[in-house]
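Moderator note: this is an archived Q&A kept for reference. The question asked for a predicted structure of one protein chain; the sequence and the answer are reproduced below.
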Amino acid sequence: MSDTSNWRGRIPVYFFSSSSGMVRQFAERLERPVFDLAVRDVRRSVPAAAWVLLTPSYKTGNRANDTIPEAVRRFLWHPLTRRRLVGVMGSGNRNFGSHYQAACRQIARASGRPVLFEFELQGTPWDVEDGRRILAALDADRLSIRDDERTNHDDALRRTASTHIDRGGFDPAARGMRRTAEHR
């Protein structure tokens, strides 16, 4: 992230990337504010407004294991963080079979937010362009309202990002998310 002066009004992307850095490469090519959930201070923060999650999925060896990275779980623990989530983008590996995009899809299903975009590994240049286009559409919608209406509009933006919103919300305890002191 170099010049941030042109980022006003752009919905930020919070991402987690393994040591391979493939998700980081994709995130940094989106040309918007990006925040790495591997950084403890970022993971402990709460987004001030609407945001998008970019997460990889990992094959864990058996169906009982979860594919959601622990840093993503920790970040999603805070109720305001979950409330301000607009949608989820996912990176995966087709070699993982039924685990392909499992984390992205599980988070979307549990939170009632849409899967905005899925791509394989670090994505192609065309994937990056599609990701930018999707995020730009969300930005345009968000910028079309006045600042004093922004809080209510973030809720509306989240609802209009997909027609499949679960109004019951996201209950991490009911979905096996555990919290200990080490998680934050």
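Archived answer notes: The helical segments are 22-28, 40-44, 70-75, 79-84, 102-111, 125-143, 150-160.
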